[in-house]
Each structure stands twice: as structure tokens, then as C-alpha cells.
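Input (structure):
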């Protein structure tokens, strides 16, 4: 998506749509996660994601998670956010260090009883457009990227935090549908049909 589309979405979205569902197709350059010898394959990850716009901040969500409550922990921010929250408590945001870098921030809860984000489909393709199976792609990934994918963070994994947030780069979103409004990126639209049937 481009900056004009971001500004259009900023103007259209109501401030009263917390809890509304959205969907997006996200195109991720997988270059940094691939071992040096496989980088020339040009692997791209395409994801179809469903979710809803959360009113709570990440810290509010974490402080009400059952895991932290049971531990008697009150989570405080380690440092100030690197994002300017521009709309809907950060659903649309920009990078403080470079406000032209726009993001869509999804806050999520992985507790099955309260799950509010769902990855419907993920595919990996090479630069020739060939679809690669997940096990093959995993064999190309760096050790650290593979550990991150499988949430193997050693001691930290034992805390098993069920909440989090994920910033999605605005210019990597191929399609976004919020409250019946759909916008598509012309340069990325070829990826949409790969994950949406």
C-alpha cells in the first residue's frame, strides 16, 4: 500500500470500530530469515490474516492475561514505544524515527478462549513463482529464524506469554478489508489470489 491509501484509510475509519473484524494479505520478504546459500532463491512469504481491532493496549492485555495474574506480575513498559499511534489506539501507526514509515499494528491474544487473530493461510514462493512447502523452506532458514518460528526462546519460553503485538509494514500489505472497506495494492495484488480462493 502507498501513503495515499494510508491517508485515505485514516480518513474513512471511524473512531468507534473497536472489536470490528478485519482481514489482510501480507507479503513478507523472507530474505533475512534465509541462510546465505539459499538467498538467491528470492523466497517470499504470503499470509492471509483475520483479526479484530483491539481497544486495549498491549500492556493492558498482558496485565489481564491469566498467566501473569497467577504470577502476581504487573507488566510495565521497558521503554517508550517506537511508534506514533495515529488511529484506533495504534491500529494505524508510524515510526517515530521516520513518520513516512507506516504500520498496521495488530494486538493479539493466543489464549484459545479469547483468540482474536487467525492466520488462515501461509504460502512460500520463490522468485519464479513456484510454491514451496513449509518443510523445504524451514530447511533453508537460519537457526535463529527457525527458533523464532517455533517459539524456542529458551528460558523466556517458559513464561508462555499469551499476548503480544505485531507491526505490519503498510507497504507490504497487498489487500486490507476493514468494516467493508477494501483497498488493494496494485504492485502486490498478484499475491492475493495465492492465499484467498
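Output (sequence):
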Amino acid at each position: 500500500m502507498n501513503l495515499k491509501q494510508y491517508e485515505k484509510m485514516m480518513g474513512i475509519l471511524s473512531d468507534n470500530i473497536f472489536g470490528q473484524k478485519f482481514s489482510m494479505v501480507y507479503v513478507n520478504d523472507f530474505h533475512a530469515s534465509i541462510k546465505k546459500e539459499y538467498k538467491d532463491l528470492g523466497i517470499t512469504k504470503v499470509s492471509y490474516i483475520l483479526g479484530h481491532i483491539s481497544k486495549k493496549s498491549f500492556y493492558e492485555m498482558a496485565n489481564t492475561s491469566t498467566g501473569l495474574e497467577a504470577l502476581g506480575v504487573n507488566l510495565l513498559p521497558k521503554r517508550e514505544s517506537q511508534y506514533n499511534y495515529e488511529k484506533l489506539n495504534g491500529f494505524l501507526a508510524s515510526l517515530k524515527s521516520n513518520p513516512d514509515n507506516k504500520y498496521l499494528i495488530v494486538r493479539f491474544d493466543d489464549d484459545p478462549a479469547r483468540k482474536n487473530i487467525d492466520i488462515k493461510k501461509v504460502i512460500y514462493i520463490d522468485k519464479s513463482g513456484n510454491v514451496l512447502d513449509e518443510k523445504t523452506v524451514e530447511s533453508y532458514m537460519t537457526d535463529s529464524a527457525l527458533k523464532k518460528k517455533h517459539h524456542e526462546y529458551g528460558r523466556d519460553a517458559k513464561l508462555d506469554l499469551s499476548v503480544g503485538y505485531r507491526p505490519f509494514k503498510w507497504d507490504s500489505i497487498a489487500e486490507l478489508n476493514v468494516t467493508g472497506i477494501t483497498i488493494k495494492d496494485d504492485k502486490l495484488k498478484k499475491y492475493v489470489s495465492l492465499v484467498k480462493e
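Notes: Residues 3-195 form one domain. The chain is about 20% helix and 35% strand.
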